[in-house]
Amino acid sequence: MISISSMTKSFGPTAVLRGIDLNIEAGELVALLGPSGSGKTTLLKIIAGLEWPDAGGLVVDGKNWLALSAQQRRIGFVFQHYALFPHMTVRDNIAFGLSVRPRAERPGKSVIAAKVDDLLGLLQIAHLADRFPGQLSGGQRQRVALGRALAIEPAVLLLDEPFGALDAAIRRDLRRWLREVHQKTGSTTLFVTHDQEEAFELADRVVVMGEGRIEQIGSADQIHDRPASPFVARFMGAVVELPVTLRAGRAEAAGLDARAVERRAMADGPARLFLRPDAIALEADPASPWRLTHKASNGAMIRATLQQDGGLEIPVDLPRHSAPDLSLGSAYRLRPLTGAVFSFDAAPQADAARPLPILKEKRL
Amino acid sequence: MQAVGVMAPGQSTMIPRVLIGVAVALTLLIVVAPLVYIFSRAFAEGWQVYAANLMHPATVHAIWLTSVVALIVVPLNIAFGIAAAWAVARFRFWGRGLLVTAIEIPFSISPIIAGICYLLLYGRQGILGPWLQANDLQVMFALPGIVLVTMFVTAPFVAREVLPLMQAQGSEQEEAAVTLGASGWQIFTRVTLPNIRWALLYGAVLCTARAVGEFGGVSVVSGNIRGQTNTLPLHVELLFNDLNATGAFAAASVLTLLALVVLVVKTVLETRRGV
Questions:
Q1: CATH of domain A2-225
Q2: What pLDDT shows up at residue B153?
Q3: pLDDT at B9 over 80
Q4: Minimal CA–CA distance to A166: which of A122, A130, A136?
Q5: In terms of CA atoms, which chain B residue is nearest residue A72?
Q6: What is the tens place of the pLDDT at every residue in A320-331?
């Protein structure tokens, strides 16, 4: 079990981690999800021992890991760009972690060879054993990188954007395959990604990070349906933000039918409703202030643009085959399928859209 | 010439021909002719005289001295080059930019000036002169002086080859090795060194060529004592001043052969570096 408490870290004047508390159970598969600059990779590197926090605790299976060097922790680390040793064959790459052990602890040559053969089989790359990394495709390289990390039977497996450099089709393949490998090895696994689909499809639990803080921890459905903050709502794609009036926990506005949005235990008054463009249905309603100004189809979805009298413009995505006939210039009522209400003080979109600083990672 | 498509508009073949002709003519005139001349003069009086010139004790000593200097300087420069490149590529520290500039200074300073600086520092009248004399240490007009000046002149060669490569490769492979439990020495010998081996060899070859051929700086600090502190390039000049042209050309042919070997090794290494 990994237990992280009150961890902070700054690079010069930039605070990268602003107090992280997180527990991960043995055997769990957890995703750290967030935009670049949210501190997720730094957190992973601190667990690996490649970075050190300014303050806080890191205890794994009852041992204080901050007192251990990276070499002593026995972690498996998989890099986005593989970081394979180019002058070694696949076999030697995978055997590296075993062959560098002190003589007294090092397994015999035949034991290492057998172990490597096992892994080659598990990773379905037995036919590549004698090739060099330069002769492999990206997906094959990442399998080798994972094999190299698994060879030392790590207490924790850490993956930094493991599929970030690969094509969409290969990513989907490797995702399924990583899930299988995790089920077979049962190792506690933590991976970093900025891809929601990847995080939700793979992980038991997803940790959403933003600007050095944990914004929310939960399952795909929980985070989708009940984002804990405007940051999470926006990050999950709720880019439509409507000013509403809250009455008895229900959002109300002209041309809005928000009965499907969960009630919120908040004081009556002005509030802000966050919606995903693909979770809004349209119903013809001549009394509505929302008018269709533009529509375009990408085959599967129709992207409609609606404008309010006041000038506010929002996108709505509708499945083409079940969408009603839409005519330009007509008025429509918005009927959100899900949504989240936050107080009106929540920073407006313009602020959140400001690009986050991309931190230059410190080198070894 | 590059192959062009059938559809490409017609171009004059005149300009490429003139340019190629000029390049070839200049190469022949400036590079090849003098090289051929060295060998033709060295063998002008036949094999026996050539062999006798080479076997002359002063010449043999000059060859030996030059080899000793190279054997001391090149390994030291390899060590310095790796250390400097490692420091600059892997760490951020105050004065890092200055260090990079300082490493390149020998490229832009005339070797004669380096020689004079060492003379003023270590010579009899120099700042360290009295202390060296009191401790009976002979630096100038002896092997240590020659080695020091040669090291100064060749200092940038290895570092300049290795540094860009280490910067381009980044430290992820080394970080991977750390997480797999490798010690510092294991990381260096099993990950870092194999990655930079061709650049390192290439730098070492360039360094050797420069160390063997260095004239200006060494001529200031060696004192030209025949059979004692005369390196091969200095010896060539000495023989020439003695009006022993055949002897001078024989000695020069050894340097030239060495240079040709270096050239071949360098070309082979250049093709391997991409691997």
A1: 3.40.50.300
A2: 93
A3: no
A4: A136
A5: B181
A6: 887 778 888 889
Burial group, residue A311, by CB count within 10 angstroms (0-12, 13-18, 19+)? exposed
CATH 2.40.50.100 fits domain A237-352: yes
Domain boundaries, chain A: 2-225, 237-352
The CATH number given to B46-273 is 1.10.3720.10
Helical packing angle, B143-154 and B96-108, nearest 10°: 110
Query: Which pTM value belongs to this model?
Result: 0.78
ipTM of the modeled complex: 0.79
In angstroms, rounded to a whole number, what is the distance separating the alpha carbons of residues A50 and A58? Answer: 14
Question: For B92, phi and psi rounded to 5 degrees?
Answer: -110, 115
Question: In this structure, what token pair is assigned to residue A90?
Answer: 């696949």
Nearest CA in chain B to A48: B179
Q: Which of A50, A76, A363 sits opposite B178 (nearest CB)?
A: A50
- For B191, the closest of A76, A85, A152 (CB atoms) is A85
Closest CA to A275 of A324, A320, A334: A334
Name every chain B residue with its beta carbon within 8 A of the beta carbon of A81.
Answer: 172
The 10s digit of each residue's pLDDT in B110-124 is 999 989 988 888 888
What is the C-alpha to C-alpha distance for residues A145 and A78, in angstroms, rounded to an integer? Answer: 6
